[in-house]
Amino acid sequence: MNNSDLNNFDIKLRLKNLVESNNLQQIKNDLKQMRESLKKFPADESGIIEIISNDSVVEISKKFLDGEIQQILETKTLERTHYYLKRLVKSVSEKRTGKVNDLNLNRWKEYDGIITDSLWIFKKRDSSGAHNAGYWGNFIPQIPNQLIQRYTKKGEWVLDPFLGSGTTLIECRRLGRNGMGIDINPKVCRLAERNIAEEKNPFKISSPVILADSGKINLHSEIKNFGIQKVQFVLMHPPYWDIIKFSDDESDLSNSGSVEEFLKSFSAVLENCLKILDKGRFIAVVIGDKYSGGEWIPLGFYVMKEFLNRGLKLKSTVVKNFDETTAKRQQKELWRYRALAGGFYIFKHEYIFIFQKNK
């Protein structure tokens, strides 16, 4: 097949012709030829090819399309064959997205990289592009990647009030979302700006980094500088109380003198963020628990309660595997002894709570 043949390959037209046929064997023969033709289409690094449908170019996963054709080839009856053909026609010609993301539900099988289970296990962190693990306490990029795809559309605004080294805004750049990050630590803000600047910006989106206390900053005033009234998603990854001391600033949540003080400071940030979150949109928090003085402190559930007390709807509780820190990896046997002697279990997970603001 030459380039001219590829350009004239209108998949919707060919599939509709097959729907109108009542010759099952002929339909399957034509599908086999179509499948062979599609093999010659060049795909990009992510396996996406460009085909013609309705006289316009459609981007589609080569793997998805091949799998759909294979499913039709395995059908036994004309009725079932027509059913799958009509469904495939719809998937290549109609886009059905939800109100909070760009996922085309007519091609839901195409999103095999998006997790829909409540247990997230990642063998290693994404270290591609500007991502790195040089900042102690940053979360793995796969978390914002998954959440941003599920709860935002391209061009919308994401707020991260505990920015850290900039992981969320790097993912925003990759996915075509505007991202605003706030952090109380000036050194960390400079680090985030350097990291974000290293990531390509193909969608020409905004990635402002703001040095401020997220519980006190006037967010309404701040976002007006970018011509917006609201943000569409908030992703929070606060300190897990005082497990890691991030700065000497008394307002830093990691310097809270008690769990009550931590929750009070966190709630101030939460209240501030909710003021500029669009109605009906989502806010997520990544949080772990703490073990201190011979007692497991359920910090994650305390934080969850702060959201529920403000009338937000809990949509999901995700449990994510927690990789060992460098310190614990070097003292693995010691920690195992401590667990056996102290009657507790070593932390290997953290929570991702996802809430929806009332409409």
What would you note in describing this structure?
The protein is of the alpha/beta class and 359 residues long. The protein folds into 2 domains: 3-97 and 104-110; 119-356, Vaccinia Virus protein VP39 (Rossmann fold). 39% of the residues lie in helices and 19% in strands. It is built from 13 helices and 12 strands. The protein has helices spanning 3-7, 11-19, 24-38, 62-73, 78-93, 142-151, 167-175, 186-198, 219-224, 259-276, 299-308, 326-330, 332-342; strands at 48-53, 56-61, 119-120, 157-160, 178-183, 209-211, 231-236, 277-287, 290-292, 295-297, 313-321, 349-356. It has an 8-stranded mixed β-sheet with strand order 3-11-12-8-7-4-5-6, with helices on both faces. Strands 1-2 form a two-stranded antiparallel sheet. A two-stranded antiparallel ribbon has the order 9-10. Helix 2 packs antiparallel against helix 5, helix 6 crosses helix 7 (167-175) and helix 10 crosses helix 11. The longest helix is centred in the last third of the chain and has 18 residues, at 259-276.
- Class inferred from helices and paired strands: alpha/beta
- β-strand number: 12
- Shape descriptor reads elongated
Distance N terminus to C terminus? 53 Å
Give the strand line-up of the largest sheet. Answer: 3-11-12-8-7-4-5-6
What is the typical, i.e. mean, pLDDT? 90
Number of helices: 13
